[in-house]
Structure formats: structure tokens, C-alpha cells
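Researcher: We're teaching a course module on how sequence relates to structure. For the next exercise, students receive a sequence and then see the predicted structure as C-alpha cells, so they can try to spot secondary structure elements on their own. Here is the exercise chain.
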Amino acid sequence: MTFGQQMLFFFSAVGAFNGLLLGIYLLFVKKLKYIPDFFLGFLLLMLSLRVGISVCIYFYPDLPRLIPYLGLAALFFTGPALYYYIKSSFQQEHFNWKSCRKIFGTLTVILGIVGLLYLFFPVIWDRYIGTFIYTVWSVFICLTVYQYYIFSKQNIAKGNRFVLPVLISNVIIFLTYQLISTGWIQIYCAGGSLVFSFVLYANFLILINKKDQQISVKDPGNRYSNKKISEEQADNFVSRLERLMNTEELYKNPNLKLNDLASRMNMSAHQLSQLLNDNLEKSFSIYINEYRINEACEKIENGSYLKIEEIGYEVGFNSKSTFFSTFKKIKNTTPLLYKQSQTLTGPRFQSSNL
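Model: And here is the predicted structure for the students to work with:
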């Protein structure tokens, strides 16, 4: 390989590798703690696979026909992944998982059928498979841009700060691959790999810069230097918070942090802390532990077959001692005494009704 080819291979491969690692982290390490991260991880994984395969084809053109098809198959899902990343970023807890699974299931079946036709009838389908993949990608890119425009126009609560950079980046990558595929730009598809690598690192630098700017404007001497949350806005936040806690039971996660809950609420950790302290007059730990203790009481009252300490683990505590001390602090009694009181009052209540 020439020096230019070596540099092309290096930057393309490094970009694909880093994108792959980030995608795996978001998919399998963070899992479903924050729904948009799942789709962002899936998007990065698909793009990285496509980029990696493009680089392999460029330097090793004699690979089996199945390899290029896998690259196109990965590209096929980038459009839907971007679409649902934007949608979930804005809809948050209202995101419809059932509809999403149905769409992805349908697309997978369609891709499987087209793939079989391509593998068994390569002469007929060879010139159509790429057109089909790029058409689906084009449709979802247009839908995503339109959806972002609608959400912004309706003044729906903004998604996280990654949304716009991710959208713009994917439009750039899409246009690059489209221009290359039409032959208007005489560069092999590895050129798209370079664009992906460049966009990936550019986004990283932009987001790091934003984070630094946010840190620099904080005033450590004034915990709540921002404008106080209005009563109307606070009521809206509290309603959303209660709905989220009741429907998804986030308090059962023993590792739940203020930042995790703030991300699900689509607000900063500072705002959430301010909301809890100023409007609910509770700290984050007290707010979460009240949900846990209330559920523990319900389980005890309903005669749960679990042992007392098992109930503590079930509702989100990570140790027996923490459960007992928190229960005593909130209910002014121990879990065992509370259970005994329920056992004593139960028969009495029944006899009074006879």
C-alpha cells in the first residue's frame, strides 16, 4: 500500500473501531437506563459495521459476496435507528416501545426476503439491492428531519443536547454516501468511512466543549443561582416525575442516581435537585426512599411471602441495614413491628365487621 492508502486505512479503521466500542457501551453497558442511548448505540454500531466493511472491501476486494451485503444490511438500519433516537429523545417516558418493535420487526423481515433474493439470484438483484437500501435510508432521513422540525415547532420539551449534532452528522454522512453511490463524486466508499471518522471526532470535541462551558458558568458558592422554577412549571415537572416513578418504578433500581433520574426527566441534575428541595421540600434520597418504604408497607400489609429483608431488596435497597434504618426514620417503627401491628389489627378489624 502507498502512504496515502495507509493513512486512509488508519483513520477509517480507527473511526470505525471507536464508533463500534461506543455503540457496544451504549447498548450493553448502559442498557435501557435511558432510551435514546439505546438507539444511539444501535445507530453507532450499524454505521461502524458499514464503515469497517467498506474499508475491508476497499483493501481486500476479493471478499465473499456475503460481506458487502452485511455492510448494506447494517446501513439499512441506520435510518430507522436515527428516526427512533430523535423520537425517543423528545417523547421520553411517552415513547411507544410496542410500535417501535413492530416497525423494526417488519423491516427485518423485508431485509431478510431481499437478502435471500440477492444471495440466490445475484445476477438479477445485484444492481437493485443497493438502490433498495439507499431508498429506505433516504425515506427515514427525510422522516427524521421532518419529525425534528415538528417537535421544535410545537415547542415540545427539548431532547438532550446530543440530538441536533447527531442529526446533522447523520445527514452529512447520508449525503456523502449518496453522492458517492451516484458517481457524482469519484471516491470509493472508503471516502464515506473517512467522513464518518471525521464527524465522530468532531462531535466528540463539540460535546466536550459544551460540557466545559456548562461547568465554567456554574457558581460553586451559590447552589441555586438559576432562576427559581415557576409554580406552573413546577407542577408540570412534579406530575411528570410522579407518573414516571409510578409507571416505571425507577426507585426499585438500587443504583439510581440524581443524574439518572434527571436524564429521564429531560432536565439538568441541578434543576431536579432544586425542584425536590424548593417545591417538595425533600432531598433526592428522601424522595426515592419514601417510594420504597411505601411499597414495602404495601407488601407487608398484603401478606407478602417474602422475608422482611427480602422485601427491602425487592423495593430497591441494597442492604438490610439501610432498609431497616430508613424504615424506622420514615415510619417511626421497625419493619418487624410494623408487620406485627398489621397482624394484630387485621383480626380485630374483621371481628368488628361481623
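Model: If you want an answer key for the exercise: Residues 171 and 278 are 42 Å apart (CA to CA). The radius of gyration is 26 Å.
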